[in-house]
Amino acid sequence: MRRSVVVTGGGRGVGRAIVERLLADQAGSVVVVEFDPRALDWADEWISDCRLVPVIGDASDERVVARAVESAGDLRGWVNNAAFFPDGWLHELPAAEASARIARNVDSVVAGCRAAINVFLTAGVPGSIVNISSHQAQRPVRGAFAYATAKAAVEGLTRALAVDYGRHGVRVNALALGSIATDRSDAHLAALDPAARDGFEREISLLQPLGRLGRTGEVAEAAAFLLSDSSSFVNGAILPVDGGRSAVGRDPEEV
Questions:
Q1: Residue 251 domain-assigned (yes or no)
Q2: Beta carbons of 35 and 81 less than 8 angstroms apart
Q3: Active site residue: 147, 214, 219, 239, which one?
């Protein structure tokens, strides 16, 4: 039985890059949990070869997660990447709606971690979980309280599960992403006028010391490392993949 990895939200952007990187290893299969089946139109060849197994549905739904487990075979890794990007201001929302927006980005991670840990414990095998977080867990941007709060919770969950299950050989780590170039960011930039686009690029150069947006492939390499035996003593880590964004201190005197 080939070893497998589950990737949630694996049809587009960072998730797709992680899936493609794992498939390039030419070993095992990748189960992709994706809400929108159209997001997997690029994967027909991999699906035909049974290297990629699609599971369509909400990654926070335990029934969907159970189907992913059933499809995985010898599960050894799980990447919680599925994300929702809600804007909003707390004073404008009913408390229940505000809490629900936070939960949209936490529930799928809890469900995925629970499923993976149960498999690893039952089988008595080591396993690796990679949660996708964000620089916003530590440094929120305006108008994104729900997303920032959720990612802070994801990082707390990552550390707690690393402590709880490390003795069983289960490693839980997270990648805290900076601004990454995806179809979503491309669409945002395309909608800006030239002056606004120049302003965006200047701001990125100030926020991320490498002076550019990250690439999805760079995130995928970091995820592949954390899933691999090469990171066998890495547990409970929150690894920034942000071009130095988490290290920089903005200088008000900087021109």
A1: no
A2: no
A3: 147
Distance CA 92, CA 106 (A): 22
- Say if 243 falls within a structural domain: no
**Type of residue at 215:** R
Q: Report residue 228 as tokens.
A: 């691999």
- 165 flagged as catalytic: no
CA distance 85 to 83: 7
255 inside domain: no
- Helix and strand counts by DSSP (H, E) for the chain: 9, 9
pTM: 0.94
Judge whether 175 and 21 are in contact, CB under 8 Å: no
- Does residue 248 belong to any structural domain of this protein? no
Sequential pLDDT tens for the chain (255 residues): 568 999 999 999 999 999 999 999 866 899 999 999 999 999 999 998 889 999 999 999 999 999 999 999 899 999 999 999 988 999 999 999 999 999 999 999 999 999 999 999 999 999 999 999 999 999 999 999 999 999 999 999 999 999 999 999 999 999 999 999 988 888 888 888 888 888 888 888 888 999 999 999 999 999 999 999 999 999 999 999 999 999 988 777 775
What range does the domain containing 216 cover? 3-238
Number of structural domains found in the chain:
1
Contact of 109 with 37, CB cutoff 8 Å: no
Question: CATH number of the domain that 36 lies in?
Answer: 3.40.50.720
Residue 168 carries which side chain, given as an amino acid letter? H
Q: Which residues contact 44 (CB under 8 A, 6 or more apart)?
A: none
